[in-house]
C-alpha cells in the first residue's frame, strides 16, 4: 500500500487546468521526487495534498484513508508536514521558538494533543515539564541540523541556507510520517546543496518518508528513490531516476537535449 | 406597497446619498489598490475638507445675497478645499505612512488611527466641537416633477459626482499618470524597474483620493452639518461601500457607494428600519458581504501564493 | 493630591485589564481590534443592570460580564477573523459604534442617554468597598489585575502563546504546523473581550453610574495607545504603558492646569504617540522581552520591527 497517493486529482482555476487527473504515489521510507518545468503544476499538486488547496475532483489518500479536503492543521496532526517554496518562517520569533511551534501537536504524545488554553489553569510544574520536554525535543532537532548554537537568534536574521534548514527542522518537529519539501535547494550554492542532500538522506534514514519538488537535477537524480514528472498539469512519467533519465517523453518535455 | 412616485422619490434620495458615498469610497479604494492598506484617516481628511470649504465659501460670499456669485463662489471654495485637502492627504502619507512602507502590516494601520485621532481632535481644538452649517449657495426650494420632490441640491450632487467620477475614469485610463497608477497597483517593484516614480504615484493617489473626499464632504455638509467627528461614520460607510464594490476597484467603489445609498434609503423608507438604526444597516451589509463574497461585487478573489 | 494619585492608580488598574486583553489580540495574535470600548460597555451594563434591577451581587455579575463580552467577541470575530486583518479593524470599529447606538436607544433596558444611576456599592463579607474610600477600592482593583496578569502571562508563555505569535507572524505556516488558526484566533479574541468586560464591571462599581457617553471610540484608541506605548506582546510593559497614558490623561488636573490645557490637547498627544511609536520605536518603550524555557532564561533583543 502506498503511504500517500492521489487518485485522478484535478485542480482547475476557472478555465485553466493546473493539475489534470494526476495519480501520484509515494511509498513508505522512500524519497519521492516531483519534477517538471515551471508551471507544470507541481506546487499546486503539493498544496492539494497538504490541505492548502482543495481539489476540483479526485481523491487524496494517506495511509489508506481518504483525506481529500482536510485542513492543513488536521493533516499536520495526522503526520504530514511541509516546507514552503518561499520560506515562511515565524520571522520575529527565535529559531528555538520556531521549532517549538513545529512541535505544537507532537504526534504520538497524547498529552500534547490537548492543552491549549487549559495551560492557564494547569499546575506550574506540569506546564514546566511540558515546556522542558518541548525544549529538549526542539534542541535535538537543531543539533541534527547543526544549528543549535543559533537557537536564540531571530529567525529572520539567519543566513538564507540556515533559514531553509530551520524550516525543515520546524517541519520535522511535529514528528511527521511524511515530509513535503517544496524546492529545498532553491537559491543554494553547490556546497550547500551537497550538504542538503546528505541531510535529506539522514532524514529518510530516521524513518520519515520524503516527497520533494526540485529543479536541481543533480539532487533529484542522486537522492530520489522514485520520480514523478509533470508537464502541463499531466503526469508524463513515473519511475526510478534511471528510467526517468532515459524516458524520451521526459527528455523531450523537460530535460532537453543537453542532459548531462 | 409604494407608489411609483414614491419609488422614484426614494430612488432620487438614494442616488444622491450614494453619489456622495461613492466620492468618499474612491479614496479608500485607490489607496488600498496601491498600498494594500486602509487609510483610517480618510474620514477625517474629508472633515477637514468640509471645514476648509465652509470657511472659504463664507469668506468669498461675504454678505452677498443668493445669486450667480454665491453659486460661483461655492465652486471656487470647493476647488480651494480640494487643493488644500489634497495637500493634507499627501502630507499625512509623507509623514505617517511612508516611513512604514517596509514595516509589517499592522504598523501603518496603527499610524493611520493615530493620524485620524490627531486630525479630528485638532479640528475640535481649533474650531470647537459645535456643529456648523454650510449654507446653500442657491435657492434650495424643491421642485416637483410628477409627484417626485427634487431639490436643486440633489441635482447638483448628482452632476458634481458624475463629473468627478467620469474625469477620474478618464484620468486613470487615458493619461500616463493613470497608467502608472495601474502599474504600481499591480506590482510596485516591477513598476520601479520600468522607470515609474513610485513615490510620486503614491502621492498622486493620496492627492486625488483626498480631493474627492473634500468635494464629497462639502456636498454632504450642505444637507447635514460640519463637526469634528463627522468623518467617522461617513468614513465607515464609505469604506463599507468600497468593500461591497470590491476594494481596490475604482468602478466597484462607485457601484458600492450608490448601492449603499440606495439600500439605506430604501431600508428606512420601505422596510421600516427605524431611523436610529440607519447606521446599523451599512454595518450589517458589511458583515454580510464579508461572509458571502469577501472580494466584493467587482473585486477579484486574490489567493495568497504559497 | 495623594487622592488624585490613587485615582490614577485605580484607573490604571481598570484599564490594564482592557489593555492586557488588547495585547493578547493585537500584540500576540496580530489582530487589530478597535472595540475594547464596546466590550467595556457591555461589561459595565451587565453589572449595572443586574445589580440595580435584579438584585445580583457584584461578584455574581463578574463572570456574566466576562461571558457576555466573550460571546459578543465571538459573534463579531467569527465572520471577520477568517479574513485579512484590516477588515477586522473596520468591523470592530463599526461594532463599537453600534454598541453605543444601542445603549443610547434601547431606553427600557439601558436608560438611554441618561444611563443607569444609583448602582449599589460592592460588599465583601459584610464590608462595603466604598469607591470614595480609595485605598480599599484600589486594593480590590489590583487584585483583579494581578489575577489577570498571571493568567495572561501563563497563557503567553505556554505553547498556546507561542501558537498565537506564530499566527501573527505567518498564518499559513502556523496552519501547516498543526495550529487550528481560526479556532485560536476566535479564542484569543473572546478572552481579550472578556477581560474588557470585567474591566467594565469594575468601572461600574467605581463610578456607581453608567452612561453611553463614557464608552466612545476614544476609549478604544486610548487602550491601543497603552499597548503600543508599553510594548506589544509584553504584559508587564503594557501595564506600564497604561499607567503612563493615565498619568498623561490626568496630568492637567494633577498640576491644576486643566483650565489652561484644552481637553483635545492630550488626545492629539495620544495620536502623536501612536504615529511616533510606529515610526521610531514599534517595539514599545520597554523594548526587550524575556523568554523563558526550561532552565534557560534568555534575554532577547526585541525585533526591530513588529511582527
Descriptive keywords:
heterotrimer, A: 260 residues, alpha/beta, Rossmann fold, six-stranded mixed β-sheet, five-stranded antiparallel β-sheet, 9 helices, 36% helix, 22% strand, globular, B: 306 residues, mainly alpha, ABC transporter involved in vitamin B12 uptake, BtuC, two-stranded antiparallel ribbon, 11 helices
Secondary structure topology:
The complex is a heterotrimer of chains A (260), B (306) and C (307).
Chain A: E1 4-13, E2 16-22, E3 25-26, E4 31-35, H1 42-49, E5 57-62, E6 65-66, H2 72-78, E7 80-82, H3 95-102, H4 124-144, H5 160-172, E8 178-182, H6 190-205, E9 209-213, H7 217-223, E10 226-231, E11 234-239, H8 241-245, H9 248-255
Chain B: H1 4-35, H2 42-61, H3 68-97, H4 106-127, E1 143-145, E2 148-150, H5 152-174, H6 176-186, H7 188-193, H8 198-223, H9 230-245, H10 250-269, H11 278-292
Antiparallel strand pairs in B: 1-2
Chain C: H1 2-28, H2 36-53, H3 58-81, H4 85-105, H5 107-110, E1 122-124, E2 127-129, H6 134-157, H7 159-169, H8 171-176, H9 181-207, H10 217-230, H11 235-254, H12 263-280, E3 288-293, E4 296-301
Antiparallel strand pairs in C: 1-2, 3-4
Helix pairs in contact in C: 1-6, 1-9, 1-10, 1-11, 2-3, 2-4, 2-9, 3-4, 3-9, 6-7, 10-11, 10-12
